[in-house]
Specification:
Layout (H helix, E strand, L loop, with lengths): L31 E5 L6 E6 L2 E4 H6 L6 H6 L5 H6 L1 H15 L6 H5 L2 E3 L4 E3 L7 E5 L2 H8 L17 E4 L5 E3 L4 E2 L2 E6 L2 E6 L3 E2 L2 E7 L15 H4 E8 L2 E2 H11 L9 E3 L4 E2 L7 E2 L18 H6 L1 E2 L1 E8 L1 H6 L4 E7 L7 H9 L10 E3 L14 H4 L5 E2 L5 E2 L7 E8 L7 E2 L3 E6 L7
Parallel strand pairs: 6-22, 8-16, 9-27
Antiparallel strand pairs: 1-2, 1-5, 2-3, 3-4, 6-7, 10-11, 12-15, 13-14, 13-22, 14-16, 14-17, 18-19, 20-21, 20-25, 23-24, 25-26, 25-27
């Protein structure tokens, strides 16, 4: 399952010129998504260069066939996700051959392409469940030290990937604005309710689950966890830090997190990520190995992923001046303390039934160096953000736009991207009279 094949060949080229240039979506990627155009019903598509290949049109034209193509062509990817990685791999092979230079049906296939500029993107799946993890030791350590410098990590951090259940109904796709939430917290002058004054981003990896649902009460061991990893994207777990500090002690995050979660619209399949698998991050000095049920030789050898992740900020003034977004975070998923497979196995270890189309967030992907902090709360430990035009930020202001980008990279492989994950902050709604 994890061996590279012809679809990963760095010499393979698409006949579409925009897929031959520097792009997130070369022929080695071929991520799935749901799009619509001109008021038509949403349907499945595949990103290639600066176009979307319409899967429904490909079926109607007889250029695609099989259960996987039918499952991917509808208004959500849940049916394809439910078929699992083998089915998605077979469809990926069809698509790669269709789009490769020398394809005998290039002329007919060109008629299936829709310019991305004309495509409206939708959520990839109907999300029944969204669980958010905390797998960056550095993120946990930096913010935990504010509460207890002698014991900054949660006691369980090195023994399991800590997580909480978040709000599936407020997950939104890239491009949809985020409304500043009202909330309650304690100020120095007393209890306050109103628009948050500490809105933050969290740069995370989105992990989309696939495969058959495990019956409730039946765990997902490490040997089967990779079968449940359908694909990946980018995720912004927006956080109201003042609200979070006030509500956290009893039970954990609630209204500080459920205001909105933004995901990139394209699902980069687990098979497309095969060239970018790396050894799981080494355990910190003095930290024991993972518990046996969260450990495997395969995970130690190739459970990690090499993905460069970046966060950019575009303020209203920068937009008016025609300035480019300013990069404020550069990190890599390779340094995370727990792998996607370990997240899946831990989530299902109590017999929780994981559904195709479920979403996992990796948690804030902060790295060990200055500049790799993946949220403003951590950056502020070094001081406010100073932007190239002289503006400063402690937390996000109305009109600010946060943009995430990611690139999977490995020596000898064609780098692939995830598309942007972006959203602008709108002012809070006045509290109803």
């Amino acid at each position: 399952m994890n061996a590279p094949d012809r679809t990963h060949d760095p010499e393979r080229r698409a006949w579409l010129p925009s897929a031959q240039a520097e792009t997130d979506f070369p022929i080695q990627n071929l991520p799935f998504g749901i799009f619509s155009r001109g008021g038509e019903a949403p349907r499945g598509g595949v990103a290639i260069g600066d176009h979307v290949l319409d899967l429904r049109a490909g079926l109607d034209a007889g250029l695609l066939s099989g259960a996987a193509a039918e499952a991917a062509a509808g208004p959500s990817l849940n049916p394809l996700m439910a078929l699992g990685r083998d089915a998605a791999r077979a469809l990926r092979h069809q698509l790669s051959d269709l789009l490769a230079e020398g394809s005998p049906v290039q002329g007919a296939a060109a008629a299936l392409l829709v310019p991305m500029a004309e495509a409206q993107m939708h959520l990839p799946s109907r999300i029944a469940n969204f669980s958010d993890f905390m797998v960056s030791r550095e993120h946990s350590w930096r913010l935990g030290a504010l509460k207890d410098v002698l014991a900054p990590l949660p006691p369980a951090f090195d023994h399991l990937p800590v997580a909480y259940h978040s709000r599936a109904s407020s997950v939104r796709t890239s491009g949809e604005a985020v409304r500043r939430p009202n909330g309650q917290w304690m100020r120095k002058d007393g209890l306050y309710f109103g628009p948050t004054e500490a809105l933050d981003y969290e740069l995370e990896l989105a992990i989309w689950l696939g495969g058959a649902e495990n019956p409730i009460g039946t765990p997902v061991p490490m040997s089967r966890a990779p079968d449940r990893l359908f694909g990946y994207g980018l995720l912004n777990d927006w956080s109201a830090r003042d609200v979070q500090r006030w509500e956290m002690p009893p039970l954990g995050p609630f209204l500080a997190k459920s205001l909105s979660t933004t995901v990139s619209p394209w699902v980069v399949t687990a098979d497309a990520m095969i060239p970018f698998a790396i050894a799981a991050a080494r355990r910190a000095e003095g930290v024991a190995a993972a518990p046996p049920h969260l450990d495997s030789d395969a995970n130690r050898r190739a459970g990690g992923l090499s993905i460069a992740l970046e966060a950019f900020l575009l303020t209203p003034r920068m937009r008016a001046e025609g300035a480019e977004p300013a990069r404020i975070t550069a990190t890599d998923f390779a340094t995370m303390s727990w792998t996607p497979a370990q997240m899946v196995t831990h989530h299902g270890s109590n017999g929780c039934n994981l559904l195709p189309g479920d979403l996992l967030g990796s948690g804030t992907c902060s790295g060990p160096t200055d500049g790799s902090e993946a949220c403003l709360a951590e950056i502020l430990l070094r001081g406010p953000v100073t932007l190239p035009n002289g503006e400063t930020r402690r937390f996000l202001e109305d009109g600010d736009e946060v943009i995430f980008r990611g690139r999977a990279h490995a020596p000898g492989a064609v780098s692939i991207g995830f598309g942007e994950c972006r959203a602008e902050i709108l002012p809070a709604v006045p509290w109803p009279a």
